[in-house]
Each structure stands twice: as C-alpha cells, then as structure tokens.
C-alpha cells in the first residue's frame, strides 16, 4: 500500500503536527487515514490492538460529520470500544455478550471529537466492560504490549495505548474509572491524563454524579496533543447535574510556560501497599530531576485511611457494575448473565452487587466525601503528590490473577489483588481530582514506567505545565532514543 510519508516521518509526527500539515494542504485527511490503516495492517497481527477499521471513514474522512476545517483538521483517531457511543458503529465492549451492539446515536463526547476535527477511523481493544487490567480473552481477542509482546498491555485502555505506542497514530480515545488511562499509558511510554471530574461529559448515559468515578480522555505521545484534545473536547452536555470547570487560558498556550516552583510530596507507601524496590529507585531519580528543575520535593504521604478508601472504591465498582449488567439483562429479557457469554469474575461482581443495600451505598458516599475533604486539605499545603503510576512490574501475558477470566471465587479478594498492583491511581478517581502518568522511567524488564502526579480539582493545567516542562528537559520528546519491539518504523 502506498503511503504519503515514510514510516520514520509518520512516527515523528504528533497529532498537532499532522493537523498543521493538513491546514497547509501538504497532505489530505484521506491520505492520513489511509496511512493509519496501513499502520494497522503492519503491526496489528502482532498486537490485536485495533478491533475494527471503518472503511468509509478512511475513504471519506467527512463521513458522519467530522469537521475537516476545525482543530485537528481530519487527523485519524481511534475510539475505545467502550464509553461514548459512535452512531451505527459496533461497540461490543470486549464482550461476547455485546456482539452486534450498535449505538443509535453519537455520545456527547463523540460529537465533540468530530467537531474537533478528529476522524474516527476505528475502535480499539478493551477488556470485557473495561473491568480488569488486561485485554486477554482468547474467545474475543488478546492484546499485546508493543514494547515486548510477551507482556500484558494493562488496561482497560489497552488497544488505545498499544496503538499509539506502536506508531499506528499519535492520539486515541481512552477512559478511566480507577486508572484505565494512566496505568496502560505508564507501561507504554505515553502521556495519560485523567482529568478532574467536570471536564469531559459522559452524557447521555451517565453524569459525573451518577457515574462517580468514570471519566473520559485520551492517550498521546506529546503533551501538546493532550492539551489540544482537552481544549477542544471539554465541556458539559445540556442537563448536567453539576457545573463544568473551565480554564481561563487554553492549555495549549499554558504549557508553553514552565510552572512556578512547585511543592511536590512524594511517596510510595500507601497504607498496606508499597512499590517494587526498582520502582523506588526510579522514583528517587525522578525526585532528583524535579529538584534540578527548581521544585521542592519532600517524602510525605497524605494522611488518608487508605484501607477505608479502597473498601469504598470497591463497593462503588461492584454496585455500579452490577446495576449496569442488570440493565443489559433486562433489555435482553434475561434473568442472569449467560456463562458462555460473560467472563466469570464479571458474573460474580453482578451477583455480589445486585442486592447491595442503600445503607452500603450511603456508607460508600460518606467515605468518598470524607476522603475528598481530607485530600483537599492536603492540597492546601502541597501542589502535587508524586508516586509511580503502578506499584508492581507489568505481568507477563496469561497471569489470570488479574483477569476477569480468573477462577477466584471471592470477588473482594480478586479486587484486592488488583489494588496491590494498581495502588496509586484510584485515589484521584474516588475524589474526582486530576492525575497524569508521565513517561520518565523504565522497569527492570525494559518496559516503560510512568511517574504519576496528582493534584487538586481543576488544577489539570498545572499538571500539563509540569509534564511539558519535563518533556522539554528530556529534549522535547519522551523516550527519544528507543522504541517498542513492534513499531511501524521497524
């Protein structure tokens, strides 16, 4: 297949650079879409990151109302197979149970994405309903990490991260309910921002109040791409329950300036959870870099009852997911999830949460409130908290302990196995605050290791400012002298 650029040139462009070339009419949106499709053909057999391509959107990027004269000007884009619907397209959510599902309308964020000039050319892999940390069901698909395909992608934005890391395209949609943007971004060498609650709409199915921990976003290779995505896609739909945050200055402008010297608390021991020793050494190296940039960094842990917080978070996931499955069952006229269509742990979560009492939900909400207030007080003294993005090394493929294919009969035990490795990201989801994974380190395996910065509500811009300062300190590009084993330019 003929391509408009060499693969080296393609991999060197972020979405903002591609948009500039489109604006100058050096390339067309159809040519870029065709190159992205060729990239999928080149690497997807080894990765299984892309579930489907939309041939009509590749041939005609204006399909379905993509605004080719706006923002990204027709840059190709993948939607995660979970989250806001794409009208008339399959959205199967990584599940045999959802095969053939086609949303009848675009989600609100989908409309914003089209208005931003992003051409939705396909959908990316996710574990079933986005519940576990890896997309590994052989009956559906098994996604691999391009840095080393013997390792998991993490999740749940598995295919999005694998595609961007492998050079298929520079920017992709992702979702986060406890770390599903940040965790896979951290193991793929990408920027993954979980925005403050009240930045991206999850309409029409849910709101930030009914969804509690769910949020939308993207993964990218450059800070400016993430900034531009937020600037163009943020905002609430009509009828939102709560006000939406706005920035007095576009993030794309803000990131051109270094932040003021920041007070950054650093920690890796959160209650019963602590990081792998190699991760601690990488964390210490990051501390040194931050100090060289003029920031004040001290080893301080927020005074949070982490055990109580994780218990409340688990209650939230179980009860929310059980009702989500119950609604699907009612639409299909079923009384229980079919065992040959839904993965075992997801059935057990439904069973555990279906009859959860209002009292249990009220207690959960009470913890959400008290933890949020406590963390808010902490941010009166500290601008940010720094940890690794996850606590333990990325597992090899097939580690069923973390999969919803697990035969663990105890749902709570299964969740707490997850918390041991995904220890640091859930707090921002519980409190509705912002967190970002920045690709600053490496695991002993050679896979990337993200460093995770968290901050108070509506301070997303300062996270991006710091990430951009770090990007400049790294020579203008994270991980510049290395690339994944599976990559379009190899």
Question: Topology, please?
Answer:
Blueprint: H1 7-12, H2 15-23, H3 29-47, E1 50-53, H4 55-59, E2 75-80, H5 108-115, E3 118-124, E4 136-137, E5 141-142, H6 158-165, E6 171-176, H7 182-186, E7 191-194, H8 208-211, E8 215-220, H9 223-233, H10 251-254, E9 263-266, E10 269-270, E11 273-274, H11 277-292, E12 296-299, H12 306-332, H13 344-353, H14 358-378, E13 384-388, H15 411-421, H16 426-431, E14 434-442, E15 448-455, H17 460-473
Parallel strand pairs: 2-3, 9-12, 9-13
Antiparallel strand pairs: 1-3, 4-5, 6-8, 7-8, 7-14, 10-11, 13-15, 14-15
**Strand proportion:** 5-15%
Strand order of the largest sheet: 6-8-7-14-15-13-9-12
Poorly predicted runs are none
Distance between the termini: 16 Å
What percentage of residues falls in helices of 4 or more residues? 25-40%
Q: Radius of gyration over alpha carbons?
A: 21 Å
Description:
By secondary structure, the chain is of the alpha+beta class. It is 38% helix and 14% strand. Helix 9 (223-233) runs antiparallel to helix 17 (460-473), helix 12 (306-332) packs across helix 13 (344-353) and helix 12 packs across helix 14. The mean pLDDT is 97.
């Amino acid at each position: 297949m003929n391509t408009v650029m060499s693969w080296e040139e393609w991999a060197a462009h972020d979405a903002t650079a591609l948009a500039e070339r489109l604006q100058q009419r050096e390339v067309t949106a159809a040519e870029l879409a065709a190159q992205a499709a060729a990239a999928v053909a080149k690497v997807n057999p080894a990765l299984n990151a892309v579930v489907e391509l939309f041939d009509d959107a590749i041939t005609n990027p204006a399909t379905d109302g993509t605004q080719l004269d706006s923002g990204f000007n027709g840059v190709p884009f993948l939607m995660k197979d979970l989250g806001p619907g794409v009208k008339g397209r399959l959205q199967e959510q990584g599940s045999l149970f959802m095969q053939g599902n086609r949303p009848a309308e675009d989600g609100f964020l989908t409309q914003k994405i089209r208005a931003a000039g992003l051409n939705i050319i396909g959908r990316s892999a996710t574990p079933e309903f986005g519940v576990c940390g890896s997309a590994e069901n052989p009956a559906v698909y098994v996604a691999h990490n391009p840095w080393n395909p013997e390792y998991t992608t993490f999740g749940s934005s598995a295919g999005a991260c694998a595609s961007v890391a492998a050079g298929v395209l520079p920017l992709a949609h992702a979702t986060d309910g406890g770390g599903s943007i940040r965790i896979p971004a951290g193991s793929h060498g990408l920027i993954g921002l979980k925005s403050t609650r009240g930045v991206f709409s999850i309409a029409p199915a849910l709101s930030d109040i009914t969804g509690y921990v769910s949020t939308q976003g993207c993964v990218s290779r450059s800070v400016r791409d993430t900034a531009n995505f937020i600037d163009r896609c943020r905002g609430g739909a009509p009828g939102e329950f709560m006000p939406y945050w706005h920035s007095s200055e576009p993030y794309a402008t803000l990131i051109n300036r270094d932040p003021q010297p920041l007070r950054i608390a650093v920690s890796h021991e959160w209650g019963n959870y602590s990081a792998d020793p190699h991760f601690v050494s990488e964390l210490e190296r990051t501390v040194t870099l931050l100090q060289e940039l003029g920031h004040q960094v001290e080893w301080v842990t927020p005074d949070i009852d982490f055990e109580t917080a994780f218990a409340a978070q688990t209650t939230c996931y179980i009860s929310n997911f059980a009702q989500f499955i119950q609604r699907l069952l009612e639409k299909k006229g079923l009384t229980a999830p079919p065992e040959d269509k839904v993965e075992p742990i997801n059935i057990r979560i439904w069973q555990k949460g279906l009859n959860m009492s209002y009292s249990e939900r009220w207690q959960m909400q009470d913890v959400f409130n008290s933890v949020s207030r406590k963390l808010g007080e902490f941010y009166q003294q500290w601008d940010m908290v720094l940890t690794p993005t996850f606590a333990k090394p990325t597992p090899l493929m097939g580690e069923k302990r973390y999969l919803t294919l697990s035969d663990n009969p105890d749902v709570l035990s299964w969740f707490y196995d997850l918390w041991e490795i995904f220890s640091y990201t859930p707090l921002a989801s519980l409190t509705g605050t912002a967190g970002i994974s920045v690709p600053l380190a490496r695991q002993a395996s050679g896979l990337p290791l993200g460093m995770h910065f968290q901050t108070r509500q509506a301070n997303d811009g300062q996270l991006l400012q710091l990430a951009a300062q770090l990007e400049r300190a790294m020579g203008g590009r994270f991980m510049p002298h290395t690339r994944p084993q599976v990559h379009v330019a190899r």
